[in-house]
Amino acid sequence: DLAHAASVAAGIFYLVLGYLLVRGIACRATRAETGEFLAAVVIVNTIACGLFILHQGLHLPIYLGQSNITYSLGGQTISRATTFAPMFNLLALGFVLAKRRWTPPWLVVLAITLLAVLVSLTRTLLIAAVLGLVIAIVARELSRPDFGRVARRVGTIVLAVALVVAGFIRLAPAYWSFLLKRFGEFTSGSGVQVQNWHLRAIHWDAVQRVVARSDLLLGIGFPKAGSNAVDSLVYSYSSDMAWLPVMYRIGYLGLLLVGLLLAGFMARALWLSLKPPEARRELCLTYFITITLTVVMSFQMWTFMQPSIYPMGLWILAFVAAEALRPAEEPGLPPAPA
User: Fold this and answer.
1) Contact 224/3 with Cβ under 8 angstroms?
2) Per-residue model confidence (pLDDT) at position 181
3) Peptide bond before residue 277 is cis, with ω within 30 degrees of 0
4) What is the pLDDT of residues 86-99, one digit of tens each?
5) Where are the alpha helices (DSSP H) in 172-242?
6) Residue 45 to residue 39: CA distance in whole angstroms
7) Measuring CA to CA, which residue among 206, 208, 205, 230 is closest to residue 217?
8) Average pLDDT value for residue range 250-267
9) Are strands 69-73 and 76-80 parallel, antiparallel or unpaired?
10) Does residue 333 surpass a pLDDT of 70?
C-alpha cells in the first residue's frame, strides 16, 4: 500500500521538483537570454502550428495516426486531431501580444497561431485567445495610458483577426460552418457542445460523491488502486478538467490552495509588468497572459495537471519566480531604458 501510494504521489513530487529545477535554471539566465529562449520556443511552436494547419485544415498527411474526434455536418465528416495540436499556443499568444511593438514577423507568428486556434475547432481555446487579445491591450496601458497606442493596437488586432478569419473561411469553409454551429449550440442550450459540459458536470459529481465519503475538505489522498468506484476513471476524467484530480486527491482545501497559488503568481506577474525596464514589462506580461489563459483552459483540458509532463506542469510559475528574484538592473549590464 505504501509503495502504491508513493508511486501515485510521485506525480505531485515531479510537479514540485520540476518547478524548483526550472526556477533554478531560469534564475541563472539573464533577462535577455530568457527572452531569446521563449522566442525560440514560440518560433518552433509556430512551425508546429503550420504543420497542424496543413494536416487538419488542408487534410495533408503530415502526422501518422487517426483523428481522435470526428463529427458529421451536412453529410461531411469533420475531423479533429487534438493529439497533434501544438503545445505552446498559449505562450505564443502571450509572448507576441505582450510586445511593445508588433513588428511584421511577429504579426505573422500571431496570425499563424490564431489560424491554428481556429483550425483546432476548440471553443474554449478560441475564447482564451480573444481574452488574451483584450488583456494585452488593457494591461499594457495600466502604467502609462496612451489613447493613440490603444487605437493603433486595436486596429492592428482587428485587421489581423479579420485576415485570419477570412483565410480560415477560404481554407476550410466546412470547418467554419461547424465552428459557428458549435457556438450556436452553446447559446441555444442544446447540442453536442452543451452535452460536453454536461458530461464534465456528471464526472465532477461522481468523483465528488466518492470523495465526500472520505473527506470532502482534504480529499481522498492516494488510495489503493480500485478501492472505489471512480479511482480507475479519474485519469480519463482529468483530461477534460485539470481541477478534478486536485479535488479527488486533496479536496476542496486543495482547490482553494491551488487557486490561490495561481492567483498569487498572476498578481505577481502583473505587478512586475508595470515596472521598468521594458524587457521586464514584456516578459512579465507574457507570463501574466499565459497563466491567465492556462487557468481558462484548465476547465477544458489537462493543462498543468497532464501526467505525461508533470515535471513541466508549473514551468511558467517558475519563470515568474525567477523574474521576481532578478534585480531590475542586472549586474554587469548597462542600465536599461525605462
Assistant:
1) no
2) 84
3) yes
4) 999 999 999 999 99
5) 173-188, 192-214, 234-238
6) 10
7) 208
8) 97
9) antiparallel
10) no
